[in-house]
């Protein structure tokens, strides 16, 4: 599909058109750090961000989501459907996050379709922004998830100095820019994008080979590194894991959730809620009578790492995109790339 | 689009007492269309829910002619506790069946060794009934059932019938016998019956269900007496929230217990259930 360009100062025109028809969420910087939140005008937008702490997964798999509401009357039940059909635009998502959404797309399709996820996904439009300033923790290049994006977007923006290059990725994307007067991109503009891509790639310092990650997991089920990581002094300069679950909280591909019921004071109305969960937490594997299938911290951190290596039941759909969020938030300074490298070295 | 998370409703047709804290609930879908369509395999499970309390994975022990589902439940947690507070005629939420079930077709012609511990007999109850109904299709049937005490045993009414099954052996064993011993139980763990076992590994398949520690040791003992890992199947318990392979809680290695199991070939999951 054709590519266009827009002057940076004209981005307002584009955004205003979107704001008229949709709710728009994009990167903002309310305090010290950026997050993806609702945009009311161009002034809210903060496109020069490196990464947000919480990933845009929250728009499709909210931290807390009501599955259905129910009424209990004289031992009879009545279920009330929850319909969510807000149409929205995610503006300025980075390639790693878009790739994470693609992984979740695959996970939530299949034999049992997840209506909640798929509805939100259907109602969303993704306007991605190629990442020209990867952070020091990013290793998206190794995971084939960045810093530039090649699939999964409806519209893709690239910062080429004074202008943005606009590429269309889908009919949805084509439709929403209809009526705007945009200049066709020249060969020179496309060359500039290439150059930017090369520059961004150079900025990424963390490199690993993703192809041997699943094998590494398979071969090192009983490796002492897991004891180091869980109970002893940590691995490659880290402290031992605290089982705080921060890594799952920020991970754009962690999908595990808990389901529970809540009732109001009358005990007659209630809802079934799903809330994101983490395999790092002790309660995750707990069953009645005090049994726990992942009681030891080493088992839990190992499971998380394997899941990100693409060697757990979620398979490639839960594996890492290299956004580096977990490295950034870990209070014990555990670095997944260093763990992988230590396993490789100690083979 | 159908929403798999919505429970259907079922009415409690009957409650049979099994032990002091275990009952068999006979449940029938209130929607006759759903009841008519229901089909199952021994080893599969249902998600039972009491709205306002929560949902639990409960295995199907048998299904009656009118597609009523027999669920043998031990009162151990929040959901089971509230199921026990329900009376005949009350309704609860039910969806399923989920999971793979025992490989009944694959083991036609083989001798069958069933090793069950405690509540672990519930998912195997359907296998025993299947073998009784299709007696000529299978070889020798050996049942080894253990529990903490004889009083803790489930399906006690069936024991005399099982003792009379053609071409079969039946062992009952309890960890301790404190009071009466009506079924001539031996004392000891299930593995203590292995030396007297008639089944020879050459043409046999072992089906195991019980506490994980029991299965671990039983599988290990079977291995030492010559059973190949591939000939051992076991049904696992895990925390389950969705039952459809999404919520993640029941993951074991590369598999979901709810979707790829709960019945697994020992060969596939051995690395993940050994004591580490």
Question: Would you tell me the overall average pLDDT of chain B?
Answer: 92
Number of helices of chain A: 11
User: Beta-strand level of the residues of chain B, as a percent range?
Assistant: 25-35%
Q: First CA to last CA of chain B: what distance?
A: 43 Å
Output the structural class of chain B: alpha/beta
Parts with pLDDT < 50 across at least 5 consecutive residues of chain A = none
- The tally of strands of chain A reads 12
Main CATH class of the largest domain in chain B = Alpha Beta
Give the CA-CA distance, first to last residue of chain A: 47 Å
- For the secondary structure, the number of strands of chain B is 15
- Summed over residues and divided by their number, the pLDDT of chain A gives a mean of 91
Largest sheet report of chain A: 8 strands, mixed
Q: Globular, elongated, flat, extended or rod-shaped: what is the shape of chain B? A: globular
Helix percentage range of chain A = 25-40%
Query: Quaternary arrangement of the chains shown?
Result: heterodimer
Q: What spatial form of chain A do the alpha-carbon principal axes imply?
A: globular
| Structural class designation of chain A | alpha+beta
Overall number of structural domains of chain B:
2
Poorly predicted regions of chain B = none
Task: Give the name of the CATH architecture of the largest domain in chain B.
Answer: 3-Layer(aba) Sandwich
Query: Counting H and I runs of at least 4 residues, what is the number of helices of chain B?
Result: 7
How would you explain this protein's 3D organization?
The complex is a heterodimer of chains A (347) and B (276). Chain A is of the alpha+beta class. Chain A folds into two domains: 3-62 and 83-203, no CATH class; 210-256 and 278-341, no CATH class. Chain A is 29% helix and 21% strand. An eight-stranded mixed sheet of chain A has the order 3-2-6-7-8-9-1-10, sandwiched between helices. Chain A has a four-stranded antiparallel sheet with strand order 5-4-12-11, with no helix packed on it. The longest helix of chain A is centred in the middle third of the chain and has 17 residues, at 187-203. Chain B is an alpha/beta fold. Chain B folds into two domains: 8-98, Translation factors (Elongation Factor Tu (Ef-tu), domain 3, Beta Barrel); 111-273, Nucleotide-binding domain of ferredoxin-NADP reductase (FNR) module (Rossmann fold, 3-Layer(aba) Sandwich), CATH 3.40.50.80. Helices cover 20% and strands 33% of the residues of chain B. Chain B has seven helices and 15 strands. In chain B, the strands form three sheets. A seven-stranded mixed sheet of chain B has the order 10-9-8-7-11-12-15, with helices on both faces. In chain B, strands 1-2-5-4-3-6 form a six-stranded antiparallel barrel. In chain B, strands 13-14 form a two-stranded antiparallel ribbon. In chain B, strand 7 (111-117), helix 3 and strand 8 (141-147) form a beta-alpha-beta unit. Chain B is globular and about 50 Å long. The model of chain B has no long low-confidence stretch (mean pLDDT 92). Chains A and B meet through strand 4, strand 5, strand 11, strand 12 and helix 9 of A and strand 13 and strand 14 of B.
């Amino acid at each position: 599909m054709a590519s266009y360009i827009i002057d940076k100062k004209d981005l307002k025109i584009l955004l205003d058109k979107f704001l008229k028809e949709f709710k728009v969420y994009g990167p903002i910087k309310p305090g010290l750090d950026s997050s993806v939140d609702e945009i009311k005008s161009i002034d809210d937008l903060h496109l020069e961000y490196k990464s947000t702490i919480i990933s845009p997964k929250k728009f499709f798999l909210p931290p807390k989501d009501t599955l259905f509401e129910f009424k209990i009357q004289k031992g009879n039940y009545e279920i009330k459907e929850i319909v969510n059909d807000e149409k929205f635009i995610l503006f300025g998502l980075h390639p790693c996050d878009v790739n994470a959404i693609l992984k979740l797309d695959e996970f939530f399709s299949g034999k049992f379709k997840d209506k909640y996820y798929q509805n939100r996904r259907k109602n969303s439009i993704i306007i991605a922004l190629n990442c020209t300033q990867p952070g020091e923790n990013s290793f998206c290049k190794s995971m084939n998830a960045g810093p530039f994006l090649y699939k999964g977007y409806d519209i893709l923006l690239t910062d080429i100095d004074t202008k943005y290059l606009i590429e269309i990725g889908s009919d949805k994307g084509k439709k929403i820019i209809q009526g705007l007067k945009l200049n066709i991109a020249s060969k020179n503009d496309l060359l500039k994008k290439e150059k930017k891509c090369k520059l961004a790639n150079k900025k990424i310092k963390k490199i690993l080979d993703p192809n041997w990650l699943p094998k590494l997991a398979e071969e090192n089920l009983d490796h002492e590194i897991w004891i180091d990581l869980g109970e002893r002094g940590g691995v490659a300069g880290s402290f031992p894991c605290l089982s705080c679950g921060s890594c799952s909280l920020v991970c754009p591909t962690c999908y595990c959730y808990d389901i529970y019921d809540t009732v109001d004071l009358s005990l007659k109305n209630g809802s079934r809620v799903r809330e994101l969960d983490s395999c790092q937490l002790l309660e995750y594997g707990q069953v009645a009578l005090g049994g726990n299938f992942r009681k030891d911290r080493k088992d839990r951190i190992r499971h998380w790492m394997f899941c990100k290596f693409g060697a757990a039941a979620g398979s490639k759909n839960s594996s890492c995109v290299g956004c580096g969020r977990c490295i950034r938030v870990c209070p014990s300074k555990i670095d997944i790339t260093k763990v992988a490298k230590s396993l490789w070295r100690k083979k | 689009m159908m929403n798999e998370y919505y429970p259907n409703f079922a009415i409690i047709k009957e409650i049979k007492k099994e032990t002091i804290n275990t009952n068999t609930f006979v449940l029938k879908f209130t929607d006759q269309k759903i009841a008519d369509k229901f089909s199952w395999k021994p080893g599969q499970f249902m998600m039972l829910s009491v709205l306002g309390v929560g949902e639990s994975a409960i295995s199907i022990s048998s299904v009656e002619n009118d597609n009523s589902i027999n669920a043998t439940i031990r009162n151990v947690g929040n959901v089971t506790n509230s199921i026990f507070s329900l009376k005949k005629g009350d309704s609860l939420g039910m969806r399923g069946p989920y999971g793979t079930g025992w490989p009944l077709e694959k083991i036609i012609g083989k001798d069958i060794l069933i090793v069950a511990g405690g509540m672990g007999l519930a998912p195997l109850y359907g296998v025993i009934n299947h073998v009784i109904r299709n007696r000529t299709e299978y070889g020798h049937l050996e049942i080894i059932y253990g529990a903490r005490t004889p009083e803790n045993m489930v399906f006690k009414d069936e024991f005399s019938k099982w003792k009379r099954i053609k071409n079969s052996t039946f062992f009952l064993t309890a960890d301790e016998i404190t009071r009466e011993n009506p079924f001539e139980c031996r004392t000891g763990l299930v593995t203590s019956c292995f030396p007297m076992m008639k089944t020879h590994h050459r043409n046999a398949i072992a089906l195991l269900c019980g506490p994980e520690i029991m299965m671990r040791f039983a599988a290990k003992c079977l291995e030492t007496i010559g059973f190949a890992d591939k000939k051992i199947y076991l049904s696992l318990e895990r925390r389950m929230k969705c039952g459809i392979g999404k919520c993640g809680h029941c993951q074991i290695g590369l598999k979901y217990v709810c979707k790829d199991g709960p019945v697994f070939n020992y060969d596939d999951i051995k690395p993940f259930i050994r004591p580490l």
